[in-house]
Structure prediction request, 87 residues.
Amino acid sequence: MTEQQRCRVMRAAGDLALQMVSQEMDKMFGGLARSSRSNSISFSYRVQPFSPRPLPGIDEERLIRVRTCTECLNHYAVFGERRLLWG
Prediction:
Protein backbone atom coordinates (compact mmCIF):
# COMPACT_ATOMS: atom_id res chain seq x y z
CA MET A 1 0.00 0.00 0.00
CA THR A 2 1.40 3.38 -0.91
CA GLU A 3 1.52 6.34 1.47
CA GLN A 4 -1.19 8.11 -0.54
CA GLN A 5 -3.47 5.07 -0.33
CA ARG A 6 -2.80 4.75 3.42
CA CYS A 7 -3.79 8.39 3.95
CA ARG A 8 -7.07 7.86 2.10
CA VAL A 9 -7.91 4.72 4.09
CA MET A 10 -7.10 6.41 7.41
CA ARG A 11 -9.22 9.48 6.52
CA ALA A 12 -12.20 7.32 5.48
CA ALA A 13 -11.90 5.12 8.60
CA GLY A 14 -11.66 8.17 10.88
CA ASP A 15 -14.71 9.79 9.32
CA LEU A 16 -16.68 6.54 9.58
CA ALA A 17 -15.80 6.30 13.28
CA LEU A 18 -16.90 9.91 13.86
CA GLN A 19 -20.16 9.26 12.04
CA MET A 20 -20.87 6.15 14.12
CA VAL A 21 -20.13 7.94 17.41
CA SER A 22 -22.32 10.86 16.35
CA GLN A 23 -25.23 8.53 15.53
CA GLU A 24 -24.93 6.77 18.90
CA MET A 25 -24.84 10.10 20.75
CA ASP A 26 -27.95 11.20 18.85
CA LYS A 27 -29.70 8.00 19.96
CA MET A 28 -28.68 8.47 23.61
CA PHE A 29 -29.12 12.20 24.09
CA GLY A 30 -31.73 13.08 21.46
CA GLY A 31 -34.53 11.27 23.30
CA LEU A 32 -33.35 12.52 26.69
CA ALA A 33 -33.57 16.14 25.55
CA ARG A 34 -37.16 15.64 24.33
CA SER A 35 -38.36 13.80 27.44
CA SER A 36 -36.83 16.23 29.96
CA ARG A 37 -38.80 19.29 28.84
CA SER A 38 -41.76 18.54 31.06
CA ASN A 39 -39.62 17.76 34.12
CA SER A 40 -37.98 20.27 36.42
CA ILE A 41 -34.56 19.39 34.99
CA SER A 42 -33.74 20.95 31.69
CA PHE A 43 -31.43 19.28 29.19
CA SER A 44 -30.67 20.35 25.67
CA TYR A 45 -28.81 18.56 22.93
CA ARG A 46 -28.16 19.96 19.49
CA VAL A 47 -27.67 17.61 16.55
CA GLN A 48 -25.02 18.68 14.08
CA PRO A 49 -25.20 17.05 10.65
CA PHE A 50 -22.13 14.99 9.82
CA SER A 51 -20.21 15.82 6.68
CA PRO A 52 -17.20 13.67 5.82
CA ARG A 53 -14.06 15.47 4.76
CA PRO A 54 -12.94 15.10 1.15
CA LEU A 55 -10.49 12.26 0.66
CA PRO A 56 -6.95 13.25 -0.27
CA GLY A 57 -6.13 12.74 -3.92
CA ILE A 58 -3.81 10.14 -5.34
CA ASP A 59 -1.30 11.04 -8.01
CA GLU A 60 -0.70 7.60 -9.48
CA GLU A 61 1.39 8.95 -12.34
CA ARG A 62 3.99 10.07 -9.85
CA LEU A 63 4.17 6.55 -8.43
CA ILE A 64 4.95 4.75 -11.68
CA ARG A 65 8.55 3.70 -12.00
CA VAL A 66 9.80 2.06 -15.18
CA ARG A 67 12.24 -0.80 -14.70
CA THR A 68 14.17 -2.81 -17.21
CA CYS A 69 14.83 -6.51 -16.78
CA THR A 70 18.58 -7.10 -16.77
CA GLU A 71 18.21 -10.48 -18.52
CA CYS A 72 15.66 -9.89 -21.29
CA LEU A 73 15.69 -6.03 -21.39
CA ASN A 74 11.87 -5.84 -21.18
CA HIS A 75 10.48 -2.68 -19.62
CA TYR A 76 7.85 -2.89 -16.88
CA ALA A 77 6.14 -0.48 -14.48
CA VAL A 78 6.29 -0.77 -10.70
CA PHE A 79 3.51 0.85 -8.66
CA GLY A 80 4.83 -0.09 -5.24
CA GLU A 81 7.93 -1.81 -4.04
CA ARG A 82 8.89 -3.66 -0.88
CA ARG A 83 12.30 -4.99 -0.13
CA LEU A 84 13.03 -7.64 2.43
CA LEU A 85 16.20 -7.16 4.40
CA TRP A 86 17.83 -10.33 5.56
CA GLY A 87 20.08 -9.81 8.44
Q: What stands out?
A: Strands lie at 65-68, 75-78.
